[in-house]
Fold:
Amino acid sequence: MESRNLDGLLVIGNAEHNPPMTYLTGGGHVSHAVLLKKRGYPAMLFCNQMEREEAAKSGLEIVPLAVVPIRQLLKDTASEMFIRAGLTAGRVGAYGRTDVSAVILALSELQNSLPRLRFVGEDMDDNIFLRAMEIKDQAEVERIRRVGRITTEVVGLVADYLTSRDMHPDDEILLDEAGAPLTVGTVKSRINLWLAERGLEAPEGFIFAVGRDAGIPHSVGNPEDLLRLGQTIVFDIFPAEAGGGYFYDFTRTWSLGYATPEAQQLYDQVKTVYDKVCDNLDLNAPFKDYQRLACEEFEKNGHSTPLTNPSSVEGYVHSLGHGLGLNLHERPWSSLSADESNRLRPGMVITIEPGLYYPEKGLGVRIEDTYHIRPDGMMERLADYPYDFVLPMKKSKN
Amino acid sequence: MESRNLDGLLVIGNAEHNPPMTYLTGGGHVSHAVLLKKRGYPAMLFCNQMEREEAAKSGLEIVPLAVVPIRQLLKDTASEMFIRAGLTAGRVGAYGRTDVSAVILALSELQNSLPRLRFVGEDMDDNIFLRAMEIKDQAEVERIRRVGRITTEVVGLVADYLTSRDMHPDDEILLDEAGAPLTVGTVKSRINLWLAERGLEAPEGFIFAVGRDAGIPHSVGNPEDLLRLGQTIVFDIFPAEAGGGYFYDFTRTWSLGYATPEAQQLYDQVKTVYDKVCDNLDLNAPFKDYQRLACEEFEKNGHSTPLTNPSSVEGYVHSLGHGLGLNLHERPWSSLSADESNRLRPGMVITIEPGLYYPEKGLGVRIEDTYHIRPDGMMERLADYPYDFVLPMKKSKN
Structure:
């Protein structure tokens, strides 16, 4: 708080699915809460009295209110919370993921009743919480590792399921158990089920995209699409502990039965770049150095990249990776414009995810794993999974 | 917008789990987007170019950007979005559920570059979106009904599962399939699984609380708790369509095997008040009239209520119900302090959920269903489920 010249913190919203509040409270069913912290003093958590027992699990000083705290912020008595927390003057950083409109109204009213306070925001890519969350302790890494283990287990189930399908005798379309064409929607339902069975959720969904959709990095996949042999499937799955906890982020690209030479070539190029990046990760190096490396390598193969064509929708069109924790995407950042403070430090958890995209050709390839930068400087992949591009079908065509 | 004296709307954040953006875009995997609408003109949706195809499903005018739009808001060029939308002066309402800190920073910087704009917030309980969402069309009601049908199906599975358990021979503790004591955590895992199998998710969790936890309205239940005969179980389940869609809200209170006379009496009192309220719901009446009715009825039985003791943690300690849609809780409101505009109008979907709580006695009772106020004025319960308090066990004690 000192380095940011902040005299206080205001964190608003639920304890779940709200990283700053989750980080400070440990989660739990505490909704529309208000946390106030004066610099140098312990934090106070204002919660609804109906949720006082849930809030107490945080170990923070709890102040139960008869009204929902975020509504209290809108009342004449709002300033009482700040007075109680000893926060009546100075710069207060406001954080949390909640209703924007209510916050704007509340802060403008509070400003009137406590004119010596000044509420300030921060860049969402580099605020005080993202800095604090950037280095994980061993317990956090173990939680992420556990999510990774379950994630890759589910990916394995998906691969087994797809390769065990019957195919239509006349064409190369996969069939479901009832003999009807298997859709992306059906596969996605199974994935949600397999995640839920294992205590994970997909709060930001996941990507299972084929054909042209696979060529658009963030297209989640069309539920009506059918699955055919020889087509690229981008499967990017980023689940979290149920209730808004730690994430994992993982991508494989598959081609069922066989691959076209064009797709195989793209895959090989992505894998080569992936390996080159992973083999060269150095402690304390700026993350964007590896984005630059990936761009240079892809450009050698004639692909457009952000290095020379930042607005291209073909070729390599995103950044190399990102930090991961209670946020799916957090510091450190790897984009070419990221500042030098985004370095690979011990205790960080990052993703490495190069890719190539040609939507008009129906082609997309991405490979992604999540790595822990160990205190001894080793880069440790948090879950292992094979890198096969072509998945052989277990049954021959009917 | 006219009645609120707004010249423009700014909506920020994801298209999923962000009701104002979900309402305007129809959902989909569009993240950190910015929607601008000048009064009298169509809305423009600024999205990341990687998500342009997902964004196009909204049917809105799409402006793909090379940077994530919410980050664009923080750049020198942010004002370009506003200029492009023709929004350079006047009062702009800012909405959405997203990172508070980034929004505060962005709006203060925008204010500098476009000094004739003024960003305004609204009360989270009564903003322009909650007003627009208050009346549902038939398609929305059918989506809520479908969630209700699945919700009650899952509740039935839970009842079957609990009543089919073996019991420990020496005491009245339920046992799982392996013969170990059944925990609340195990039951909750099964509920999440059954919801996921049916395409629902529980973005705000759910309550399965026994004993003392059942006496605290928003305690979600302790995963280590065991299940015993003759103990009240409050099961409040509020799932939504997966991906951030319409909710349903439903509560039953059960006592397995038998009930104590004290618990049975509380249950009967809650059911009587529930029936009295439901029998008297009148079109266009203020919702809070029924909160008052519920309070008066509970006070006749000697319970504390918000009518005479708003800060009590025993007795009837919350309000009667709430509107429901893309938000779990939305207009109309039933609290005694709600203004007169919160009336029961055709097209609304509301919950009715009276309850009584005695945490120190380990007792809690709540009954809740979701109702549609039909255009013909009839109150229609959107999913039927029995009101049995005591659930007989199917097997006798070992």
